[in-house]
Known about the structure:
The structure is a homodimer. The first copy, chain A, is built from 16 helices and 19 strands. By secondary structure, chain A is of the alpha+beta class. Chain A has four domains: 2-90, Uridine Diphospho-n-acetylenolpyruvylglucosamine Reductase, domain 2 (2-Layer Sandwich); 97-215, Uridine Diphospho-n-acetylenolpyruvylglucosamine Reductase, domain 3, CATH 3.30.465.10; 219-340, Alpha-Beta Plaits, CATH 3.30.70; 343-418, Alpha-Beta Plaits, CATH 3.30.70.2740. In chain A, strand 18 (374-380) and strand 19 (385-391) form a beta hairpin. Chains A and B meet through strand 9, helix 7, strand 11, helix 8 and helix 16 of A and helix 6, strand 9, helix 7, strand 11 and helix 8 of B. Chains A, B: InterPro entries: FAD-bd_oxidored_4_C, FAD-bd_PCMH, FAD-bd_PCMH-like_sf, FAD-bd_PCMH_sub1, FAD-bd_PCMH_sub2, FAD-linked_Oxase-like_C, FAD-oxidored/transferase_4, Oxid_FAD_bind_N. Chains A, B: Residues 35-216 form the FAD-binding PCMH-type domain. Chains A, B: Its cofactor is FAD.
Amino acid sequence: MTAFLDACRHTIGAQYVSIDAEQNAPYLIDARRRFTGTACAVVKPGSTEEVAAIVRLCNQFKVPVVPQGGNTGLVLGSVPDDSGTAIVLSLTRLNQIRTIDPVNNTMTVESGCILHNIQQAAEGADRLFPLSLGSEGSCTIGGNLSSNAGGTAVLRYGNARELCLGLEVVTPQGDIWHGLRGLRKDNTGYDLRDLYIGAEGTLGIITAAVIKLFPQPKATRTALLALRSADDALRLLTLAQKKCNAALTGFELMSGFCMTLVSRHFPQMRLSFKEAHAQYVLLELSDSESDEHANTLLENLICDALQQGIVQDAIIATSIAQSKALWTVREHIPLAQAAEGKNIKHDVSLPISVIGDFISETDRLVREAFPGVRIVTFGHLGDGNLHYNIAHPEHDTEDSFLMQQAAINRIVHDSVHSFDGSISAEHGIGALKREEILRYKSEIEMNLMRTIKHALDPLNIMNPGKLIQD
Amino acid sequence: MTAFLDACRHTIGAQYVSIDAEQNAPYLIDARRRFTGTACAVVKPGSTEEVAAIVRLCNQFKVPVVPQGGNTGLVLGSVPDDSGTAIVLSLTRLNQIRTIDPVNNTMTVESGCILHNIQQAAEGADRLFPLSLGSEGSCTIGGNLSSNAGGTAVLRYGNARELCLGLEVVTPQGDIWHGLRGLRKDNTGYDLRDLYIGAEGTLGIITAAVIKLFPQPKATRTALLALRSADDALRLLTLAQKKCNAALTGFELMSGFCMTLVSRHFPQMRLSFKEAHAQYVLLELSDSESDEHANTLLENLICDALQQGIVQDAIIATSIAQSKALWTVREHIPLAQAAEGKNIKHDVSLPISVIGDFISETDRLVREAFPGVRIVTFGHLGDGNLHYNIAHPEHDTEDSFLMQQAAINRIVHDSVHSFDGSISAEHGIGALKREEILRYKSEIEMNLMRTIKHALDPLNIMNPGKLIQD
C-alpha cells in the first residue's frame, strides 16, 4: 500500500493524495448519513491524463477505485465499502467548462463541474441546460451522467442520458476513450456512450462530456391545480400534452397529505385553496413566443380542464415570485417529511397509464399490513416517476417502524413489479439496491450485465460492489 | 447442414425454411443492387420463441445468422456474405402490433412490423409516431432500431434510439431478454436497450419493442426558402430554433445544383422562384394549437429572416397539397441524381456550427483533385446530417469516374474527420464501411467494441462481418 500511495503522490503531487482522517471524512459518508465507508486514500487528480495515470496504478497494485463527484447520490453509489482497500477518486478538480458552441447548441464540460455552474454558463450564452434537481448546487455533471439523473424537466427534455452527445472516459485499464462528439447523428458502432451513462462508475470513469443546450424559453408559467384523484391527474396530463405539446415542461403530482405536511411544518407556505383536496398538480409551461402567448395557453388549458370537471380549483402564478413560491412548496415536501420523522422511501416508476391503479392498490396493501401508516406520495407524474414514501403510524415509534423497512420494501416493490414498473426510477442501484434488483430482474438480464462488467473490467476494480455484485 | 436444416424444419415447419434459389433471391441482394450474397437457407420463424429456437440450433450447428427485416439498408448490413454458410433469418412474420397505450403514449410492436403500418396505427389512436424515412413503406421497425434510423423528424423527435423505451431481444445463445418496458425513467442497471439499438444485429436479434408516441400536431406548415449560402442557412436555423423551439420539426438543406437536377429530370416540379439561388431550406413547423397560430408563427419567422437579410425569397405552402409538393421536390433529389447518372455518395454528420466551413473546404478539395465534378449536397441540416454526393464531370464517363470512388471517399471522409464529424450519420456501417471506420476510430474504441462483441457473442454467429470484423 505504501508503494502504491507513493506512486500516486509521485504522479499527481503529494498534496492531492490524502490519508488524513478528518480531511477525508466528507468523502466517506453518504449523502443521507446512513453509512460511512473507509478508504486507503482520497485521490484528486487534476486532469484526464492524471485520472488515467492513477487508474493504471490501481491496475498495477490491484487497488479498487470509487469514483466520486459531488457525493450527493442516494443509493451508496459514490462511497467506498468498509474494507479500506479502495481509493476514493474525486473528480472535483476537473471542473472546467472547456467550450460552448451556441450554434451547435452544445457545451463541453469536465465531469467535476457543478450542475448549477453549468446551468449558469448556458444562461450566459443565452441557452438553456435543462437538467435540474434538488442537489444542483453541489452535484457534478459526471455524477449526473453516471447515475443518469432525472429531475424536474425530464417530461420535456429527457433524462441526463438524452442530454449528452459525447463522452471522454478513462477505462478500467487506464486508457482514455476520446468520444467527445458533438453530433446529433452518428451511427458508427456500438453505443458506448449510453453504456457508460447510468453505469455508476462500474465500467469506467467519465472525465468530460458534450452536453446539449436548448433555446431559452421566452416565458414560463406555473399553476397549482387541485384535483379529486390521481386518475384525474392522468386525464389532465393527456389534455395538457395534446393542447400544449412540448410547451409542457413540468407536471408534478402531490397528494393532499404532502400539502398537509408542508402546511404543518412550514406554515408560511400555507396555500390559499378554500378546502383540502385529494391531489394537486404543479404544472409548468415554457413558451418560446411571449408572455401573452404563455398566458393564453395556460388559461385555455385550465379553462378546458375546469369545464371538463377534471380540475376542481386552480392557483395561477402571476409573477416570477409567485411561480417560485409554488415550486418552493413542491421542494419543501421532502423537508416537511423529514421534520415529521424518518420515512421509508421508494423511488419508483410505472407506465403512466397505471399510476392511479398502482397508488390505490399499493396504498391498500401497505395499510392492510401496517395499519395507521401515513403515505406520502409525490413525484414527476409526467414521467411516471413517483416518490412513494411511508411514515410511521402516529401510535408507533419511528424506530420500531423503521425496523419494518424490509417488509415494507417487499410490498411496495412487489407491487411495482406487478405493474411492470421499476424499483429505481432515477436514483440508481449503488450498494443499496444491488440485492433488491436480483428479485425482479431475470437471470438472463443479470447475466448480460455481468458479462459486460467482466469483459470491460476483468479485475473488478471499478467501483466494485456497486450496481452488480461480482 | 442437412441435419441443421431438418432441425429447423422440425422446429418451425418446413414451409418456413426455404432453400429455393428463386424464392430466396430477394433476401440475398442488397437494396441498391450492388451485392448478392448466398445463404444455406432463408428461415422465417413466426414468433419470438421460434426465433430463439432457431438461434439455439445455429449455436448447436455453428451456423451464422443474418437477421433481416425489410432489407432496405444501404450498407450491406442485412444480406449474407458469399460464403453460403449463413442463414438469413427473416423477421417479417413477426408483424403484430401487440398493444397501444394512448395514456402512456406507447405502442408495443413486433420487429417485423412495417414502419408505415406503425405510423398508421398511431394515427388511428390519435397519436403520432414521428419516425419517417424514404423506405417507410417497406422497412421494418426491427431494422430501424438495429440501424438506429434517422430520417426527417430527428430535429424534433430524435433518432430511432430516442423513440424506443424497451426491447425484447433473442441473444446469440438463443435466450430471450424480456425488456419490453414502457417506462420514461428506469435506472436499474446497464443500458442494454441502447446497446442493441444500432448494433446492426451483431449482438442479438430485436424481436419486439416498446416505442414512444406523441400527440398529433393540429397544424403543419411548410415553406421553401432561398438563401445566399450554407452559413445563412445556419443563421436561419438558430433564428427558427429561438422563435419556434419545438414547433420546428423539419429543416432540410438543398443546394442550388440539387434544384437544377430536379428541374431537369422532373420539369413538372420546377419551382416558381424568379431566379436561381445558391441554397434552399425546406422548413416545417408543427403546431399544437391551430392553423391560425401556425400561420402566424411561420409568417413572423420568415418576416424576421427577410428583414435580417438571411433569406432572399420564400414560397409558403398554403395548402396540404402545396406542402406535399414541396416535400416531393426534396424527395426527388435522389431520383433526379440517379437519372443524371451514378453517384459517389456520402452520409456524413458534422457539428452544426461548422457545416458551412465543411462544405466550402470539402468542395475545394474534391474539385482540386477531380476537376469538373458536380457536387450534390442536401440533407437534414437541423441534425448536422449531410448527404454529400458527387457526380462525374460532364467530360468524363460514369464508369471511369466510379473507379475513383476510393480516392474520393478518402478526401471526403478525411475532411469529415478533420471537422470532428462522422462518416456514417444515419446509414450505419454494415459490411460496406467496416474497414473505413478503422481509419477514423481509435484503437481503444475499436477494442472496446470488439470486447463487447466477443463477450456477448463468443461464437461470432450473429451477423458476422458486419459493423466490426472479428
